[in-house]
Amino acid sequence: MKTLLIGSAALLSVSAFAADYQVDPAHSFVTFEVGHLGVSTTVGRFNELEGSFSLDDSGKSGSAELTIQSASVDTNHEARDKHLRSPDFLDVKQFTTITFKSTAFDGETLTGDLTIHGVTKAVSFDIEKVGEGKDPWGGYRAGFEASTTIQRSDFGVSYFIPGVTDETELEVFIEGIRQ
């Protein structure tokens, strides 16, 4: 099962000309894909997340943090989602959140500490800036997409491998509102 977490924004050193953003949860998503029985792909998402990020004027330095509510996992199948919340997978009663806190950002790669199921590992996301600009309500927004592949067993989530693949693709879609 894929857990992401990606998601998340970046936590890095920031120049004097940094802009701070709050993640807009209505326009931000963390998704995952895992293989199922060698015949299909299961896609899911997490519906509840919050976070923040900072960027310098060059866009090549910044920081980010993301917190995802584990119980918000959603694969559009109630029975499967209940199983994903169980101790077999996310164990959401014991591990209520999935977090990411960046440690480095070079404008293309965001590296940081991802914590899933109580286990923290360094991961790197490929980052693509979608765009930035004024919104219709007088604010200013910036959007990014991030992707990585993790092995869920590295985070202590190894139930039913290889029926559900160990390899989990994570994608993070973040829109932030400048503060």
UniProtKB/TrEMBL annotation:
<feature type="signal peptide">
    <location>
        <begin position="1"/>
        <end position="18"/>
    </location>
</feature>
<dbReference type="InterPro" id="IPR036761">
    <property type="entry name" value="TTHA0802/YceI-like_sf"/>
</dbReference>
<feature type="domain" description="Lipid/polyisoprenoid-binding YceI-like">
    <location>
        <begin position="20"/>
        <end position="177"/>
    </location>
</feature>
<dbReference type="InterPro" id="IPR007372">
    <property type="entry name" value="Lipid/polyisoprenoid-bd_YceI"/>
</dbReference>
<dbReference type="Pfam" id="PF04264">
    <property type="entry name" value="YceI"/>
</dbReference>
<keyword id="KW-0732">Signal</keyword>
<protein>
    <submittedName>
        <fullName>YceI family protein</fullName>
    </submittedName>
</protein>
